Amino acid sequence: MDRVYAIGDIHGHLDKLKVAHALIAEDRARCGDMDAPIVHVGDLVDRGPDSFGVIQYLMEGQVAGENWVVLKGNHDRMAAMFLRDTPMVDHMLLYDFNWFHPRIGGIETMASYGVEVAEGIRTYQLHAAALAAVPKAHRDYLEALPVMHRVGDLCFVHAGIRPGVALDDQVEDDLVWIRQEFHNSNADHGPLIVHGHTPVDEVTHYGNRLNIDTGAGHGKGIGVVVIEGREAWVLGAGGRKDVTQEKPLFGF
Known about the structure:
Blueprint: E1 3-7, H1 14-31, E2 38-40, H2 51-63, E3 68-70, H3 74-82, H4 106-112, H5 123-133, H6 136-144, E4 149-151, E5 154-156, H7 172-177, H8 180-183, E6 192-195, E7 204-205, E8 209-211, E9 224-228, E10 231-236, E11 239-242
């Protein structure tokens, strides 16, 4: 049986990310399985105080050979799009929003790189300062993050999938942004879909999907789980806690 660890939305909280990795290390030691992969479901950046540190930590771990998968979230995509040679605003945002809207978190991300988003600053000035401050390696890393990872009977994405569309035909807009159409579906998607994006009070298993975003972007903790088959456990200071299915599998 495949064993996979997964970490929910991080949102610039390096300290919480390191705690999550420590909990996984403890569970790996108990299992005697030091090679099981760790999948991060995206939203590395925004809102928290150290997006720079999160990216650097994950990059260094992967370079060192850690069996880590890091997926792209919608916040990572917004950051990457602004940090291109020609800045862009994600077309999935509301009409009057951009990455620097107070509710999004780009201001905090730039602060972690030493760039102040001053009131009244023009986009071209901010973009030039951002390109000078954000290492190209970080920009390239965000741009190249994958949007899906499959292993065994599991499919990891940031936001979800569009029901009724084959996994191979899913599009990035849905994989990093979808909400209601996915949440409201009790269809059998094939593999268990493991995702974040929409905060819940606690890791929740819906039978066809597992939501592991526990609100780090809103001052709460980072969800961290171990999955064996389609069963999941939350990892905490006391070890594993079973995640029971909150709804009947494909019920009516």
